[in-house]
Amino acid sequence: MYYGHIINAKGDIIDEVTMVEMPAGKSYTGQAQAEIFCHGGQYILKQILQEIYSLGARPAEPGEFTRQAFLTGRIDLARAEAVAEMINSKTEYSYRAARNNLIGEFSQQIDSLRDKAILLLAEIEASIDYPEENLETAEKNRQLELTENIIKELDSLIESYRSGKIIKEGFRIAIAGRPNAGKSSLFNLMLNQNRAIVAPSPGTTRDYLTEWIELDGLAVSITDTAGLRKSKSTVEIRGQAFSEKLMGESDLIIWIADISEKNWRRKLDHDLKLLEKYRNIQIIFNKIDLIDKISHKKLIENSYVEAKQPLFISCKTKIGLKSLKKALTSQINKAMPDLTDCLIVTSERQKKKLADSLKLFRSVDRGIRNDISPELIAFDLRQAIGAIDEITGRVYTEEILDKIFSQFCIGK
Q1: Among 66, 111, 314, 365, which residue's CB has the most CB atoms within a 10 Å radius?
Q2: pTM of model > 0.85
Q3: Residues 6 or more apart from 208 whose CB is under 8 A from it?
Q4: Domains of the chain, with CATH numbers?
Q5: Handedness of CA 208, 163, 102, 401 (dihedral sign)
Q6: What integer is the mean pLDDT of 362-384?
């Protein structure tokens, strides 16, 4: 580390600074590099940068430093992607998943899969070189066992992407129901602020609102959707179409029903039959402050909804809000993996390459079982290894790099 002054072309001192010089192989990028530490302040930074640019330097492109770290071989492509994920992490879950990938745990598993695939390829190619030697049953079984193990690992990694997407993008909750059931009121309560307009007339929400909160260390996206009912209004019909689309994309749907309304049970039974196509639904009974004080169990006894384990709340008095948040936290935790026991795929690009490789390994498995020509099996294996190599960047194109690093912030 050096101490001194930054002096402009006129000989004037801009600032008192320290500078660290890093030789090639000892820096973040792997190249010879220097970092200047000056006093804070936009004006000082601007003046120093102008002097540096005047000597022929230029501002870095988004992700350019990490891109150089990849190109010099200091990190692989999977670890480079983890840098961006770590910077963008908003919760402990997303931070830990990105950290595990950054320190190379994911890359190690991918390299292990690649080693197994190359071992299998070597055996297959040996049978091409020596066709007169028939494949023994024990050798065939060993190849099948190795292929099956690779397929299981790939399956497990691909399956982890659902949790990885939740970690990266947040757990998505859609609040849905009939008009005037209390969707916007619940939305405001979850946010602890008046974000959505609440009015006694039905159909107030004609578009959707989305906000983020944190529950149990995980980012949660909550969307207030338009009420679902028959309508002649073009705007309301479009809002309802968006609602149904958002419900299909959500990890959990909170279906809120007005229990103070006449014929609420008949309407809810009708609604739930239409909602059977959705994966995960939590039924909420709102406005319990407006009904007679009878047990909640009696309200739903012998009804279609009883097995759905509904929750009872009052958005007006906040009765049941704590129980609802507890239930939501439980739902989220069920969807999340134990990051101490497994690796999580958080990149859609990596998941696609894993899926491409899996398809090819399944073809290899069929080929070995059916005694297909070893040349064809070897071809599929090379393709599968190529897909694996694209994950860590052993094989890459400039287009792939441009797409990945364009998502980085400047300075990384």
Answers
A1: 66
A2: no
A3: 223, 224, 225, 226, 239, 242, 243, 246
A4: 2-59 (3.30.1360.120), 78-165+342-405 (1.20.120.430), 170-315 (3.40.50.300)
A5: negative
A6: 94
